[in-house]
Structure formats: C-alpha cells, structure tokens
Design brief:
Elements lengths: L2 H9 L5 E8 L10 E9 L3 E10 L2 E11 L14 H4 L8 H7 L6 H8 L4 E5 L20 E8 L10 H11 L6 H6 L9 E12 L9 E11 L2 E10 L2 E14 L7
Antiparallel strand pairs: 1-4, 1-7, 2-3, 3-4, 5-6, 6-8, 7-10, 8-9, 9-10
Helix pairs in contact: 1-5
Length: 262
C-alpha cells in the first residue's frame, strides 16, 4: 500500500488527491516491516490534508504531505501536447524488457537477475536510457536533458479496484520510476554508471485531471538544473490529449570518489 492510498483509506475516500509532497529521509530495508503513521491536519468544506510518516526500526525514513480537494469547475489552460505523442505512438515502440535483453551481457552477474526483473508496469521508452537508440535507428529525437516513455498496467484493473484513489496511488508509484534519468542523461550518465550514487531526495506530484493507469500514459521528463551533486527534474503525464499530472523531483547524483556518505 502506498502512502497516498493509505491516507485515502483513513480519509474514507471522500475527496480526490490533488497534490503530494514527499521527502526521502533515509534508505529503508525492503524486507523489514514499515509502520505508517497518518496524521489528520485539516478537514474543511473544500480541502483535507494528511501527513504520512513511514517509520522503520523507530526512525522516520519517509514523509509525505497529501492534499485533497473537492472537484470544482473553473478556468482551463494547458501547454501544447508534445509532438512525440503523434510521432511515436506506443504501437511502434518496444518494451523496456526488450532493450534489457539486448544488453544483458554487459551487466555484472551480481546485478543481472535484479536488472532483468520486469517492472510492475509496462514501459515503452522513446529511447531506452541505456542504449540511447531511438525507434528509427537514426539520430536521437530527444534533447540531452530529456527522457520520455509510455507507461501502463499489464492488465485492466478489476472492478473492485477500479477507483480514483487506486489509479492515483499507482500513478504516484510509477511517477518516480525514471524521473531522475533525465538528470543523469544530461551528463551522459545512467543509473548503472560506475562510481555513481543516485537516489531520489524529494518528490512532488500534482493531479490535474482524472486518468486511467491501465491505459497508456505518456510521461515526458526533462531536467532544468544540475548543481551541488543534485539534479532537478520535471515531468508531465499525458493521456487522450490532456495534461493529467505533473511531477517535480530533486535527486542526488554523486560520484563515490567525491564522498559516499549520504
């Protein structure tokens, strides 16, 4: 259960999530239990606010502030849809697992099984981050500071789970998947580059419109600044011509030769 879904359960799912702001405090252990502490900070006519703290071995490892707002009508504007959506529909792209299989011989044996383990969603990158080869086989169609992919669930959500807060929780989960790849790509690096520590420091997400995570979502990501061993990246999620969600993330990108202590 993600923090957003956990908070929605406490909220009894009466309002849709419109934004979340998370901080990754320290690394957690995947095979150790995590306690989620949910605090009710506000309930008003239009808004509700929750703070969720993930605690492991008595210490906070993650905190997120979640804001919920009732649906309202109002002024509407969005930036133009990226041309890449028309140029590269998902039907002409290969899945990330295809690219991984092509380069598995170059992966260290100790990391190979983890590397080849499929992601929980289907990812179809415009250009795979470890090959930088676009579908046409020609020059890159992306900017140096850009990464883009399509994402969706393997199967349609069962009726019992086909609820707005479930779609939002899954979208929040996969919004972090490759966002810092744009920052690393800016410097010709990727998450497998040697002598590099790369991890998410904070993450924000804004939900603009309802959408389905079991249909293709185009995720366009770019980096606006890298400095002080950190990178700032931004993402836009598109579906059916609508900008449905936006993300912002700062990540650590440090060479181990500089300092390995987080």
């Amino acid at each position: 259960m993600t923090c957003s879904e956990h908070s929605q359960c406490i909220l009894t799912c009466t309002l849709p999530l419109h934004s979340l702001h998370a901080n990754f405090i320290s690394a957690g252990l995947a095979n150790h239990p995590v306690l989620f502490k949910v605090e009710n900070l506000r309930d008003s006519h239009s808004f509700s606010t929750r703070q969720v703290t993930a605690i492991q071995h008595g210490k906070p490892i993650y905190m997120v502030m979640l804001s919920y707002m009732k649906n309202e009508t109002g002024m509407e504007y969005q930036i133009p849809e990226p041309d890449l959506i028309q140029q590269f529909p998902p039907s002409m792209l290969k899945e990330e697992q295809f690219y991984k299989a092509q380069i598995q011989s170059s992966i260290s044996p100790e990391y190979l099984s983890t590397f080849l383990q499929p992601f929980q969603l289907i990812s179809k990158p415009i250009e795979y981050v470890l090959t930088d080869l676009p579908p046409s086989g020609q020059a890159s169609v992306l900017n140096q500071n850009q990464y883009a992919e399509y994402l969706k669930l393997h199967d349609a959500l069962d009726a019992q789970f086909d609820q707005l807060h479930i779609h939002q929780a899954i979208a929040a989960y996969y919004s972090d998947y490759n966002l810092y790849s744009a920052a690393l790509k800016t410097h010709g690096l990727n998450y497998l580059s040697p002598e590099l520590i790369a991890t998410s420091l904070d993450h924000s997400m804004y939900f603009h419109h309802t959408f389905r995570v079991d249909n293709w979502v185009f995720y366009d990501m770019n980096t606006t600044r890298t400095s002080q061993s950190r990178g700032l990246s931004h993402g836009q999620m598109w579906q059916d011509g609508k900008l449905v969600a936006s993300t912002t993330q700062e990540n650590l990108m440090r060479y181990t030769g500089e300092s390995s202590a987080l």
